[in-house]
Amino acid sequence: MDWDAIGAFSEILGAFAVVVSLIYVAVQVKQSNRQAATDTGFALMSEFSRVDELILTTPDIIALMIKLESDEELTDEERKRSEHFAMRLMNNWMQADIAHENGLLDPELYKDLIGDARHNMTSYPQLKKIFLNLFENYPRIKGMNIFRAAFEDE
């Protein structure tokens, strides 16, 4: 056998191995990205579940949520509790927005979370007022996509 033919065959075999390796790495990266997005979605939903659990298991919070649906004036304690509740929701929605911007959140889940933010702003008018006040202290946050979508009529 000719040494030139062996060299050419080796080069072809090496090029094929490189292509197979690149395909393997691409598949691994895609799977890794999918797993990161899934993990992010689960982590976010866990945080929202914690908020729901708090509401469901704390009578004072349930009473506060009912009051947030009305025009009834909040006491100082209720106002402060509502501000922190709003900040908790804001943090969760911010995490969703950041994850979405970085490609780590399923787009359909992100749309659902925008819907959740809109629902909260329409269902709880007093909570919406609290958010609008928070945005004055945190103007950069109001510019985040999820909040712009939730408050697009503002």
Q: What labels describe this entry?
A:
154 residues; mainly alpha
Q: How would you explain this protein's 3D organization?
A:
- The protein is mainly α and 154 residues long.
- The protein has one domain.
- It is 85% helix and 0% strand.
- The protein has helices at residues 3-57, 59-68, 76-101, 107-123, 125-137, 139-142, 145-150.
- Helix 1 (3-57) runs antiparallel to helix 3 (76-101).
- The radius of gyration is 25 Å and the shape is elongated.
- The model has no long low-confidence stretch (mean pLDDT 89).
Largest sheet: none
What are the secondary-structure elements, in order, as H or E? HHHHHHH
Share of β-strand residues: under 5%
The radius of gyration is 25 Å
How many individual β-strands? 0
Oligomer: single chain
Helical/strand content category? mainly alpha
Mean pLDDT: 89
Number of domains: 1
Helix count?
A: 7
Helix percent band? over 70%
First CA to last CA: what distance?
Answer: 79 Å
Report the principal-axis shape.
elongated
Runs with pLDDT <50, length 5+? none
List the helices and strands and how they pair.
Layout: H1 3-57, H2 59-68, H3 76-101, H4 107-123, H5 125-137, H6 139-142, H7 145-150
Helix pairs in contact: 1-2, 1-3, 3-4, 3-5, 4-5
In short:
With 154 residues, the chain is mainly α. It has seven helices and no strands.
